[in-house]
What we know:
Blueprint: E1 2-3, E2 8-14, E3 18-24, E4 43-50, E5 53-61, H1 62-65, E6 74-77, E7 81-85, E8 94-97, E9 102-105
Parallel strand pairs: 1-6
Antiparallel strand pairs: 2-3, 2-4, 4-5, 6-7, 7-8, 8-9
Keywords: Secreted, Self-incompatibility, Signal
Pfam family, one: Self-incomp_S1
InterPro entries: Self-incomp_S1
Amino acid sequence: xxxxxxxxxxxxxxxxxxxxxxxxxxxxxxxxxxxxxxxxxxxxxxxxxxxxxxxxxxxxxxxxxxxxxxxxxxxxxxxxxxxxxxxxxxxxxxxxxxxxxxxxxxx
Length: 107
């Protein structure tokens, strides 16, 4: 996940694991690894906050992301939105506008 302009505080959590809270400096990235469980129900939740807002969203949901980003899921953060990208794509397919805090799937 990458943010331009200000630091981003993120907290990732699944049903079984708490990946903790991390502060990502502006224009830097942060990553983590996870595996889909045997039943294909892996679900990772994210809370993100920065000086311009906050968001809570599903950063990984096996039913949505197993084919969307089978090896690498990329997310971006800006002052007004969180964006998700299909593996290998330059344009986001998931867009969450922070003004309305609703998640839109663009595909």
